[in-house]
Amino acid sequence: MSLPANKRILSGMRSTNPKLHLGNYEGALRNWVDLQDQGYEMFCMVADWHALTTMFDKPQEVAYNSREVAKDYIAAGIDPEKSAVFVQSDVKEHAELHLLFSMMTPLGWLERCPTYKDKKQDLGSAEREPYGLLGYPVLQTADILLYRPYGVPVGKDQAPHLEIGNDIAGRFNSLYDCEVFTPYKYMIPEDESRATLPGLDMRKMSKSYDNGINLSDSDDETAQKIKSAFTTPTKIRKDDPGIPEGCAVCQYLKLYSPDWETQWDEDRQGLRGCMQNKKELIEVINEKFRPMRERRAQLDEGEIDRILADGAERARAVAEETMRQVKSAMGLR
């Protein structure tokens, strides 16, 4: 495999919830592990400042969530010896570069940004959105460009959210007649089907809907969730024909069961019932994620502290060099 000269990658997830679900794993985390194992230099961030844009009244929850999300990263296969795992707020250069970028980013760019519109919906209509929500894409850009990465792992539907980052990079280089930043690539997985894993109710899998299976769920918790999952509404009896394309349980079987084609065919013909599908899915899901759950259970708080401290130190080394170049280009002290 031929890697680019700059093989650095930055990615992260918000710590709005202490538990990552299968959608987070299939849509992002699984790809990070693959890229790490291919030899890329990974910086895996827990985005606690981003979480505060919609949880500004719950900072203690965000702090707790951040440690739990880091545990899920490691349990899923991110190796702290190979990849830097760190919390965003432990690297103050993120805030510094965000401030400088905010001085030169046109307001119209932010108001049109899909990220701003999505996060505004997350907040709801109870009150006016805070300043930090409008500036969310600028902070996201600072997060990425601070590491001057080759690319950012992202799903195809999320790529438009990152376009403003390359626009800001180009504007910075043009304003200050420099080449501090180069455009980063959108590293979209070849198999996009995994990124569209539905929730157990066939809606989008979301923490707010509570319709997902968490990486840290026990065998019993997983079983209870699958037992209540959405199946074909018209399949009342075992011999009624099913429609696996519209059945959450069948969608999960397709992803995790080696026998899914047979299972789908039997479901369509009315040769198997929904309870059999659920039973087999429970078995395959628990077997698939048992190693991750065992790794997570073995992590103690002291080990997490060491991992996050080491990751932040490695991240700061790159961030400080970027800020030196930025300030030099701008003529700042």
Morphology call: elongated
Number of domains: 2
**Known CATH architecture of the largest domain:** 3-Layer(aba) Sandwich
What's the average pLDDT? Answer: 92
Summarize the amount of helix as a percent range.
40-55%
How many helices in DSSP terms?
14
Structural class of the helix and strand makeup?
mainly alpha
Find the count of extended strands (DSSP E, 2+ residues): 5
Full CATH superfamily name of the largest domain: HUPs
| Major sheet description | 3 strands, parallel
H/E element order: EHEHHEHHHHHEHEHHHHH
| Strand order, largest beta sheet | 1-2-3
CATH fold annotation of the largest domain: Rossmann fold
Which spans have pLDDT < 50 for at least 5 consecutive residues?
Answer: none
Distance between the termini: 42 Å
Q: Mind telling me the C-alpha Rg?
A: 22 Å
CATH class of the largest domain equals Alpha Beta
Q: How large a portion of the residues is in β-strands, by DSSP E?
A: 5-15%
Overall description:
This protein has 14 helices and 5 strands. The longest helix is centred in the last third of the chain and has 30 residues, at 301-330. The protein has 2 domains: 8-197 and 301-330, HUPs (Rossmann fold), CATH 3.40.50; 219-295, Orthogonal Bundle (Tyrosyl-Transfer RNA Synthetase). The chain is elongated and about 75 Å long. α2 (48-55) crosses α3 and α8 packs across α9 (159-175). The strands form 2 sheets. It has a 3-stranded parallel sheet. It has a two-stranded parallel sheet with strand order 4-5. The protein has 333 residues and is mainly alpha-helical. α1 links the parallel β1 and β2.
